[in-house]
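Quick note —
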Amino acid sequence: MHNFIVIKYGIIFWAYSSSSGKIFTLQKKMIRIMAGAQPRTSYVSLFKQLEILPVPCQYILSLMSFSINKHEIFKTNSSKHNINTRNKHHLHRLNAKLSCFQRSAFFAGIKIFNSLPPSVTILKNDKTKFKAALRKYLHTHSTHSVDGFFMCKYDL
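Predicted structure written out below.
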């Protein structure tokens, strides 16, 4: 378990680096060792069995924890304009063309938050319930890449 704490350290800053794939590969190997499974055993069921989030899900959880804890730096769409739209409670995303900004924790946090199901985002004012609901959602819809998370459109 100690190794997984080390993996989470600073994850919101390095998860988009080229080394994150290597870290995920190492995590899969450690999961198989911890479970005493054969090298060819599917790691997907092992993650669920051991109740451990894959690196991409840990990134999402850590980034959303950061975003909720620093909610005052994020604006909602309704605070930027008075138009009553279905996305008025989404976080307002700035227009950014530089890839370094698009890969920042600030920008990625907004994009991921806006992709969460309403059953999770509605809890944003209660940090404990929000994190519990998000963890449950990520365990249920475990993804093995951040791009895979954006493709998942299932609710709890």
